[in-house]
Amino acid sequence: xxxxxxxxxxxxxxxxxxxxxxxxxxxxxxxxxxxxxxxxxxxxxxxxxxxxxxxxxxxxxxxxxxxxxxxxxxxxxxxxxxxxxxxxxxxxxxxxxxxxxxxxxxxxxxxxxxxxxxxxxxxxxxxxxxxxxxxxxxxxxxxxxxxxxxxxxxxxxxxxxxxxxxxxxxxxxxxxxxxxxxxxxxxxxxxxxxxxxxxxxxxxxxxxxxxxxxxxxxxxxxxxxxxxx
Length: 229
Known about the structure:
This protein is an alpha/beta fold. It has 2 domains: 10-65 and 159-222, CATH 3.30.190.20; 73-156, Rossmann fold. The protein is 31% helix and 21% strand. The chain has helices at residues 4-7, 21-30, 82-87, 96-103, 116-122, 126-129, 147-156, 180-200, and strands at residues 39-46, 58-62, 73-76, 92-94, 111-114, 158-162, 168-175, 208-215, 221-222.
């Protein structure tokens, strides 16, 4: 049953013609009628079926306008790198003892970074970390010797882009409180990243079938992309 607040929102907006993101942000923000700072979210449907195989996209993008989220970052590293990780802003740092805590279900963090040497030990916890999307991955920059950069990226505003088995991608470009310029910069960064993924996967035809924008508790609008992806 819909709430009184939701019933006051525009109806069937997802059936309206596609419009540029610049023109949609004011409408989306107008629909943010809750008391909290709603996130502004994108939803993409990709052409998941190709002749050879299904498309699997998994990458990260640094959001130039920030994410508006405070991310708790944990680092698994050797003892000599502990001080480096702490000074770079890591919230939790440890080695073998920390791996044992994770094994026992102690995961009070949202992003996990690991050095290559410790990844061998951490990889045994795939069944624990994998389902939660917390397993470090070299492709995503979370298995690295450069802990300072990895921690900075995770803290400053980094979004993961991955499609589910049905070809859907969901990603946030910020909060209602962000100015339009911040949100548009983040949107463009995500579009550029998807464009690169299309090239890397040698996809025939368009990668994106449809794109929508909404707020956490709002209604969705169809986005008109400025270029074919």
